[in-house]
Design a protein that fits this description.
The complex is a heterodimer of chains A (221) and B (316).
Chain A: E1 8-10, E2 13-15, E3 27-30, E4 36-41, E5 49-52, E6 57-60, E7 70-74, E8 76-81, E9 83-85, E10 88-90, E11 97-101, E12 113-117, E13 123-128, E14 131-132, E15 138-142, E16 152-161, E17 167-179
Chain B: H1 2-7, H2 9-24, H3 53-59, H4 61-64, H5 76-94, H6 100-115, H7 123-139, H8 143-153, E1 159-161, E2 170-172, H9 173-188, H10 192-216, H11 218-221, H12 224-227, H13 231-243, H14 251-265, H15 269-275, H16 300-310
Antiparallel strand pairs in B: 1-2
Helix pairs in contact in B: 2-7, 2-9, 2-10, 3-10, 5-6, 5-13, 6-16, 7-9, 7-10, 7-16, 8-9, 10-13
């Protein structure tokens, strides 16, 4: 595993001409092959994106001002396997804090950020660590609001802030199990009520789906 | 040719890009959703040279799909199982369902190829057929369908990337809609310049797949570049091109990639539902990994054309 220092690259882009026979305008950002980056437009209200570098080039759209004023933050994922204590949570009576054990936790630029995700990858809550051990192997963090969370497996991801001022150094993840609050599926269509925009209509579940077709489930070839 | 000259090469290029986009472009920059192959930051990418592409293909279509033997003694049941396997594979990844009529016709065509009463489809024929399918489909797009296609392709940053990695450039939604409408008008007039300009894009996509499939799965695809593809292989490759799905990754790989992609988006379920809900599938309309209106290319007409070649007819 490489232990690279985060490189903050300023944005610099080649602008492909918009003339005869040329492809449409695209910002081409120099990057390191197959490294992923957080690509942040400068002075735009729209958020950044995470993009992987292909053959030394990142291709992104023009920014909100029609230019290529981006800052790239190399994104590091140490992908460590961490452990959470408690690893099993009784949801009606959750703990107030969680202890996460691993390595490489770093509070040099800010307390590490801890994010809680459900088993589909949706964000449940975010908190900053309240303490980091001097050797960077243990952090304490407040538990998120679990009042709307159902039984299942959850992922806890820890990310360090770097000298770039961004949280782009992913340390790793731990898993937690929640129990004591089963998810209801009122119409029995296989989509839980919290996933289902029509929880009492077994024929549809999607918020934008007036019926068959939005997601092409009826599309035949 | 006069039309082409009068409109200018640059405009034609844009129109073709949009035309190709309308048929089979994907939405997002390939994000850091790929499952790391080892600890660190390496990811596989759809447009880069992937060191582990062969392995990823074997873990995907190579392990998830059951291919029947192509020898003359293959049974009806074995071919039927193979067709069901591919239909299920495509549906699981994109929500695109194969009709019973197509299944029956595919079974008959596959058996025909194995027994010598039908023939394989060359890569060139397949390219011609798909080019024709793109042009035919674009010619019949309604304004509403173009708007919906644009919505499907548009990234969170508001732009449209040509193919998953944007290898042919980036369009704004407005440019996309305008250019596809122009392409539609040209297609309706049967403009040969558009066909000639579009074909290399389709060819690149088909050839790329034929190449890596033949290397990754030599038993099933080893001779397709020289001998052509069976009807069922043609449908699979058409799906791959339409959805920009490289057919890589097992079910568990794909599930992990979808979770990681959502984690990188850092949205709650409610935020996602309110802004842009996904289909729960990796590819196709509102796919989690790549969103594309794949049904515009993988449709009944396109499959009919491919089957008619195998059955001895030409491209309609």
């Amino acid at each position: 595993m490489r232990n690279r220092i985060l490189v903050v690259m300023s944005a610099v882009m080649l602008f492909i001409g918009w003339g005869c026979g040329s492809p449409p305008p695209t910002c081409l950002l120099s990057c390191q092959h197959l490294v992923s980056y957080s690509v942040v437009p400068v002075g735009c209200t729209t958020g950044g994106t995470i993009t992987v570098c292909i053959n030394g080039t990142l291709r992104v759209a023009l920014d909100c001002n029609g230019g290529c004023n981006y800052v790239l933050h190399e994104r590091i994922n140490h992908n460590l396997s961490l452990s959470a204590d408690p690893s099993s949570v009784y949801l009606p009576s959750p703990p107030s804090s969680v202890t996460i054990t691993g390595q490489l936790f770093n509070a040099t630029y800010a307390m590490p950020m801890v994010e809680y995700f459900d088993d589909y990858g949706y964000l449940i809550g975010t908190a900053l660590a309240t303490s980091v051990s001097s050797n960077g192997t243990v952090i304490n963090v407040p538990a998120p609001d679990l009042s709307f969370v159902y039984s299942g497996t959850y992922v806890v991801r820890v990310t360090n802030k770097t000298s770039s001022g961004f949280y782009v150094e992913v340390v790793g993840t731990a898993t937690m199990t929640g129990y004591g609050r089963d998810r209801p599926d009122s119409d029995g269509d296989g989509w839980y009520d919290d996933q289902d925009c029509h929880p009492y209509d077994p024929s549809r579940w999607d918020c934008n789906d007036p019926g068959c077709g939005e997601f092409r489930e009826c599309e035949l070839y | 040719m006069k039309l082409m000259k009068s409109l200018g090469q640059g405009r034609l290029t844009l129109v073709v890009l949009a035309l190709a986009s309308a048929a089979f472009m994907s939405v997002a920059i390939f994000s850091a959703a790929a499952v790391p192959t080892k600890k660190g930051t390496n990811h596989s990418g759809p447009c880069g040279a992937d060191a582990n592409l062969n392995e990823q293909v074997r873990r995907g279509v190579g392990s998830e799909v059951h291919f029947a033997s192509s020898n003359s003694k293959v049974s009806d049941a074995q071919v039927a199982a193979s067709v069901e396997s591919i239909a299920g594979f495509i549906y699981e990844r994109s929500n695109l369902g194969m009709s019973e009529a197509t299944k029956k016709r595919l079974i008959a065509a596959e058996l025909g190829v194995a027994r010598g009463t039908a023939r394989r489809i060359s890569i060139e024929e397949m390219t011609d057929s798909l080019t024709q399918a793109v042009l035919a489909r674009v010619a019949t797009l309604t304004d509403e369908e173009i708007e919906r296609a644009a919505e499907t392709f548009t990234t969170q940053m508001g732009s449209i990337f040509t193919r998953a990695c944007g290898k042919w450039g980036v369009l704004s939604k407005g440019e996309f809609v305008e250019q596809v409408k122009t392409a539609r008008d040209w297609s309706r007039r049967g403009n040969s310049a558009v066909r000639a300009a579009l074909r290399p894009f389709v060819q690149e996509e088909v050839n790329e797949r034929a190449s890596y499939l033949s290397h990754a799965l030599p038993e099933q695809f080893g001779n397709i570049e020289s001998d052509g593809v069976t009807p069922l292989q043609a449908v699979l490759i058409t799906y791959s091109v339409a959805a920009d799905d490289r057919l890589t990754g097992s079910k568990s790989d794909i599930a992990a990639m979808m979770v990681e992609k959502r984690m990188d988006a850092r949205q709650t379920r409610a935020e996602k539902q309110a802004q842009n809900p996904d289909s729960g599938r990796p590819y196709g309309v509102k796919g989690v990994l790549y969103s594309s209106p794949a049904h515009h290319l993988l449709n009944k007409e396109a499959v009919d054309n491919l089957l008619s070649i195998a059955e001895g007819g030409g491209i309609k």
